[in-house]
Design goal:
By secondary structure, the chain is α+β, with helices and mostly antiparallel strands. The chain has helices at 12-19, 33-38, 75-80, 82-87, 89-96, 101-106, 109-114, 120-123, 161-168, 187-190, 268-276, 281-291, 303-318, and strands at 5-7, 24-27, 46-49, 59-61, 67-70, 172-176, 182-186, 209-215, 223-230, 238-246, 252-260, 262-265. The structure holds flavin-adenine dinucleotide.
């Protein structure tokens, strides 16, 4: 394990200056970063603890129905906060689905979004596409738990359960960068292109930091549904997860996890047909099939497409797609 120093800034400008230096990396609870350092997957010279920054641990529910979740909010808080789960129950369910109570107590929102991908080749130090090699080792190897999106050079999946719920809630990620620059981006954009970039999984530029996640007022309430299918009953990553919401205005949003290197939003045309309601079982099955039309499973993970279709069918029923409610 390489030696590194620990820095805990208490102001954002101080943190941004520290993160802008080569070899520096943000750390939240350290539940993913420290094992990555230990395994030699990540090499750095300094960790910058971002949990003491002003507002980092604040969870603010605004009167208009929107919310701001500081990047340092613990996953256990997301899972247990009564006000949050009343507005966004599927986000609380997704946070509760993460790992174990100990991991949820240490793990932060920013760290959950920023955690590295789960792939036994990548984490095992194999020279794969993301580890300095030329091609994905899983493609011709063991890939039962890998992604089902064909047009990528890395077939790993991103493990964040929370990101899937946030994608279906149309959340925005608030980002601060060198010199105090601020920007926001939709959750899925945070992972855009990750499957074909050999160097990183997030679209954060050097020195950028996630400061918060913003939930729009329109996403509060309505019907919300979360499901995570795992290889075993607990303490496991998703084979497939699904977050689905029918907003109070009747529109529908659905996202899947376990499909690729980020949450995967299903086609808007499918969401619109689900929103129109009045579906019988055959139409629900046809829509679930259509939602997965563009996926390209590998040789030994085609079963994931079937699981995804099954969870999508259950989500459509949970949103009341049959009776058009
Ligand atoms: C056994 C096990 C089971 C697990 N099961 C699940 C699961 O089922 N579902 C799931 O979603 N996760 C799961 N995880 C992952 C776990 O949730 C993550 O380890 C945790 O969420 C990371 O949070 P952290 O604060 O500890 O992140 P850290 O380890 O501190 O950081 C993780 C990464 O995010 C970056 N980062 C941290 N904060 C920020 C920020 N504010 N801005 C930008 N980048 C940042 C770090 O630089 C690092 O690269 C599991 C982990 C283990 C070990």
């Amino acid at each position: 394990m390489t030696r590194f120093t620990y820095h805990r800034p208490t102001t954002l400008p101080e943190a941004l200056v520290a993160l802008d230096e080569p070899g520096s990396r943000a750390i939240g609870g350290g539940t993913d970063l420290l094992p990555c350092i230990e395994d030699g997957v990540v090499r750095l010279t300094r960790v910058v603890d971002v949990r003491a920054l002003p507002g980092a641990a604040d969870l603010t529910l605004h009167a208009d129905g929107s919310a701001r979740l500081g990047a340092g909010v613990r996953l256990s808080t997301l899972a247990e906060h009564a006000g949050l789960s009343a507005r966004y129950p599927m986000l609380a369910d997704a946070a509760l689905a993460v790992g174990t109570p100990a991991l949820r107590n240490m793990g932060t929102l920013g760290g959950n979004l920023g955690q590295r991908m789960r792939c036994w080749y990548f984490r095992g130090g194999v020279a794969c596409f993301k580890n300095g090699g030329e091609r994905c080792a899983a493609y011709a190897g063991e890939h039962e738990y890998h992604g089902i999106l064909g047009d990528v050079s890395c077939h790993a999946v991103h493990p964040s359960d929370v990101a899937v719920a946030l994608e279906a809630l149309d959340a925005q990620v608030e980002i601060a960068g060198p010199g105090g620059a601020r920007r926001t981006c939709p959750v899925a954009e945070l992972y855009a292109g990750a499957g074909n970039d050999p160097h990183k999984e997030l679209t954060l530029a050097g020195g950028e930091l996630i400061t918060a996640v913003l939930l729009p007022a329109e996403a509060a309430g309505g019907a919300q549904h979360w499901e995570k299918v795992m290889q075993r009953g607990a303490w496991d990553f998703a084979l497939i997860s699904c977050a689905a919401a029918r907003r109070t205005d009747g529109t529908v949003r659905m996202a899947l996890g376990g499909v690729g290197l980020g949450p995967w939003r299903i086609a808007h045309s499918v969401e619109e047909d689900v929103a129109s309601g009045g579906l019988d079982e055959d139409s629900i099955a046809a829509l679930a099939e259509r939602a997965m039309y563009d996926t390209v499973p590998l040789e030994r993970n085609g079963y994931k497409v079937w699981i995804a279709q099954a969870v999508l069918r259950r989500a459509m029923r949970a949103l009341g797609a049959q009776d058009g409610a």
